[in-house]
Automatic annotation (TrEMBL):
This is DUF7344 domain-containing protein. It comes from the Archaea. The lineage of its organism: Archaea, Methanobacteriati, Methanobacteriota, Stenosarchaea group, Halobacteria. Residues 14-91 form the DUF7344 domain. InterPro entries: DUF7344 (IPR055768).
Amino acid sequence: MATEGVSKRMVRRALEAPRRRLVLDYLTGCEEPVSVEELAVGVVVEETGASPERVTPEQCGPVRISLERSHLPALHGLGFVDWDSRAGTVQSTTRADDGEADGEVGESEWPPALANDD
């Protein structure tokens, strides 16, 4: 995925969504690709405080759909995740692992790789 044309503004806008930041946090702790279903469980756990064993399919379904329709395509387009929609797997990229997605939205300091973008 080419990301040369990605601006600081595009990254900021993408990371305004708390769920996208949760996705990046979750994936940064994973060494191997995870299924979108496993990721959905992880997001539900973080958003609700439930234990993974107590997460129901009714909770995961809407989260999985939002991941597949909105969040994963956006993060993939920015080069923060490798998402294989056919296999149903996702993993963080070196761009995310190198900290380019760190920081709160609205901070004046951005990672050096994004510092010169408009």
